[in-house]
Amino acid sequence: MASICLILSAAALLLNGLTLLGRVPGRDSGVADVLIGGLQLLLCTAVAISADGSLPALFAITGTFLFGLTYLYVGVDALAGLGSAGLGWFCGLVAVAAVVFAGVHVADDPVLAVLWVGWAVLWSLFFVLLALGWSSITTYTGWALVLASPLTALVPALLALTGHWPTGPAGAGIAALGEVVVFGGAAALTRRSPRNAATSPTAAPAPAATTSPTAAPAPAATTAS
Question: Would I find Amino-acid biosynthesis among this entry's keywords (predicted)?
Fold first, then answer.
């Protein structure tokens, strides 16, 4: 279930990145955000109810709750035109939480820890873009989301679903290389892009986190799908 949520997040990242780049209308990505965020929140709520007060289980879905709420918030903002300052500050809070989740998983799942660092950077970009109003990074953020969709969401989810989740320092190194491609590639593509990206950000900043194949089975937000 968690891996499926991560695949859905990959779709949201792609659509929202393309929206920032002016390739997909904001209402289109907004509908997808509402559907994906709403579904993630429903799944997390079901897991929270069945957890019966288990702190590990509740901690595991905390990240997905934040991500699902962010997707839903982004979608409603795009469809209703609410303004993005509040969303930006919320993204700043989630970026801080993502750094904490990365630290928690350094020892038990270094690959997931690296992914959390990348997601923290994505949320930080949205904080700067939406809360601080640095519209000059709109195109860069759009390309970062497009590249992050397969490299930090789709591929990890497929690895988990097929039982090939990488472990150890080698796996973490590969994950780190993928994030270099995401953020370095976004910089290169931004330099080559025409200045016609969307100026009204409607993208969801990060994929919903997932459950590590070695962890207890739960659609957890703080463990890898």
Answer: no
Between CA 11 and CA 8 the distance in angstroms is 5
Within a domain: 207? no
Q: By residue range, what is the domain housing residue 67?
A: 2-192
Does residue 48 lie in a domain region?
Answer: yes
Q: Which amino acid is at 221?
A: A
Structure tokens at 215: 């962890």
Residue 205 lies in a domain: no
- How much is the pTM? 0.86
pLDDT in tens, 76-109: 999 998 878 999 999 999 999 999 999 999 999 9
Residue 5 Cα to chain centre, angstroms: 11
Q: Can you tell me the distance from the alpha carbon of 191 to that of 217, in angstroms, rounded to the nearest whole number?
A: 43
How far apart are alpha carbons 31 and 202 in whole angstroms? Answer: 11
N residues, the chain: 225
* Domain count for the chain: 1
CB 211 within 8 A of CB 219: yes
| Cβ contact 32:11 at 8 Å | yes
Q: Comparing C-alpha atoms, which of 73, 62, 72 is closest to residue 100?
A: 62
Nearest to 90 by CA among 72, 66, 68: 66
Residue 140 within a domain: yes
- Answer yes or no: are the C-beta atoms of 203 and 36 closer than 8 Å: no
Supply the CATH number for residue 80's domain.
Answer: 1.25.40.600
